Amino acid sequence: MSVTAQLWEINGRVYVGEVKEKEKAKQQYEKATSAGKTAGLVKAAGRKMEKFSVSVNIAANSTVAFVLTYEELLQRKMGQYEILTQVTPELPVQEFQIVADIYEAQGLAFVEASATFLTNELLPLVKKTVTDTRAHVSFSPTLEQQRKCPGCEGTIINGDFIIKYGVKQEQSLGEVQIVNGYFVHFFAPPHLPRVPKNVVFVIDRSGSMNGMKMQQTRDALQAILKDLHEEDHFALVVFDSTVSQWRNSLTKATKKNVSQAINYVKTIKDRGGVSDIKVIQKDVQSAIGGNMSLFCLGFGNDVDYSFLDVMSRQNKGLARRIFTGSDATLQLQGFYDEVSSPLLLDVDLRYPENTVDLLTKTQYSQLFNGSEIVVSGQLTNNDPENFLVEVFAKGAEHDFQVRGKARVLDTDVIYPEKDYIFGDFSERLWAYLTIQQLLENRFPTQFVNRHHSDVGTQQEKDRNSAKALEMSLRYGFVTPLTSMVVTKPESDRSSPLLADKLTESKTAATGRGKKETQQPLLIVYAFAIIRVIDGFLVDGDPHFMIEPDRGDSLCFNINGNPGTIFNLVTDAKSGFIVNGEIVGKKKDAPGGNSNNYIGRLGISHKKLGVRLDVSTQDISVFHDGKHIKLLWSDTASVKSTNLDLRLVKNCSLTVTLKHAVKFEVIKHSKVWKRQHKHQEYLGFYTLDSHHLSASVHGLLGQFYRGIEFEVTESLQSPDAIMYVKGQTLNVTRHWQKDFSQQVIDGKVMPCWFVNNNGTGLIDGKPLDYIVSGLF
């Protein structure tokens, strides 16, 4: 699990969380809270990505609402997936709703929904609709239905809402999903016999296990020992400041031996003393001798879970935290049930070396009944139909070996109406698994596979940490190395991540000496519909504007002769390119006039196979081997797997390229209706660019990832000094129209105008952006 987004609405204004290196985020949060400002901090609790804490500081007389978004790879356990939502509102909620949509292309075996707080009155409110591959579950009690009694302030909604479902497992090779050059392989072969297991139970009898902890451990162990099969082998080790073993070697799980072990377990009592981790680790490894798996269970939050986790992984096992409470015995037994039936040992998943790269872990000590193995990586070619998979392992009776073409599922068909896990889910899942494994490898283990060597030196651990940090920041994951921070800026206009509701007015005034970071914006409409506005445009004169929804926007001209073509956006990774051709202001004006505009756009996306030729007369769309020609005098829409295009007559063209970019082209003609010599022209507005890579460039694209600047202005003059990219520039207050929200008349926006074709603000010179053709 990883938190990936956080929205705060503070007194009617919306702010977006930013993932930063952990210490930097903490400093920003503490600076805000020490000044009595509203701020929030989300950080990982512990060294894994399984638990998070949220710190909130609310300024006096403030109203705050926040939305937290997280992504989670559901773990298959006991043949099913579980979605658990903890609900503890304490008071009735005006609009309470839990909704889950499930999509499984392999087919749903079953779907169950329950809650620990359900009464006979609430049970009918759990709605469930299930088809072969989809399920919809909802729970929406009214305000009165939530109350403990009529008129009471207390609520009966207090506990866990749980959805469990199973997926049909028919393919021995498993399921492969491929999106945008990344694959995810889910491996869970059906109908395999269990493998006899060797397992050691290590019990802490130090003072930390006093009271109910030890009693619950004894109860659970007795139940677990009774479930052992005769072909299994087991051992018992107890420790405090010393270590002792029930027997000096593995013991076969005969009825007699199990009975004797249960009698021994009944005598284990907490005795106090200090646990010596080094002694425990050495003695456990000596007792195991590499012949069995070690599963460690730690009680409560005060246990040294890191030590248990490392020790279990050293010995081909797992660790699990047991939360203290009346159901601790059931938690112990539940964990044992998960790992009590190994199906395969020494599992090795292989993929063609000339086809894949950047693989996550591909070798596993065991596969348990009801679980699955997930492997992800990057494809080096674009031939998913010939994606070969091989799996080798040791089974109960003979070696397991299967190979063949994976059944590749077309997720665009499976999820045609959903932006499934932020679009590029395969790449994000690959990043998540890679970060998770890099974090694990910061600690000494015996984890070895053919792609990752044993992590032993401090230099290797530092490299793993640095790589995990870099990927966490790049993909926006909250991990033990990063945190997400939201702080309300000193003034709204200087907010790096600010969104206004449309009903609120914006001021054109700007503060002096403020350092600003230009980043994408959100505009929040009524009814909680969110529209992403990046705030980068090419339109009118000045041509280029960065952040038109901010008080302190930047603008500049790029002048050229009619017919000159400039590159506006280039993303080499995805192949997304936008080029614009210059036209003069007047039809019969001589070349080189200073007032010129964009008269034609060439837009292409290589990976998606999309090309758009947009002029002031018509729009040509090339996609899926087809050519569609649209006229600006039409109102039309084009929708396919990767393209969603909507044309409003003589007004605007809005284009969404799936999991890539969203933009809008505005046609300007009415402004010249009384002056026939004036040319029509186009405006280009970026609405959503967050899927583009960090290397995106171009006259416009270079600003998609933000720019820092500082402006010092005089109240007596429209001129000011701007400090940007280590340079000092003279800027002047200008006014420009933004037509993305008010297409007919435009909205007047202030901006700081950078003279001399943006020199000092843009990278290089304007001539560097001239290209030979639209495509």
Automatic annotation (TrEMBL):
SUPFAM superfamilies: vWA-like. Its main location: secreted. Gene3D superfamilies: von Willebrand factor, type A domain. InterPro entries: ITI_HC_C, ITIH, VIT, VWF_A, vWFA_dom_sf. One of its GO terms (cellular component) is extracellular region. Keywords: Glycoprotein, Protease inhibitor, Proteoglycan, Secreted, Serine protease inhibitor, Signal. The keyword Glycoprotein applies. Residues 487-513 are annotated as: Disordered. GO terms for biological process: hyaluronan metabolic process. Pfam families: ITI_HC_C (PF06668), VIT (PF08487), VWA (PF00092), VWA_3 (PF13768). It is found in: Secreted. It comes from the Eukaryota. Residues 1-72 form the VIT domain. Residues 198-273 form the VWFA domain. May act as a carrier of hyaluronan in serum or as a binding protein between hyaluronan and other matrix protein, including those on cell surfaces in tissues to regulate the localization, synthesis and degradation of hyaluronan which are essential to cells undergoing biological processes. Belongs to the ITIH family. This is Inter-alpha-trypsin inhibitor heavy chain H3. It comes from Tetraodon nigroviridis.
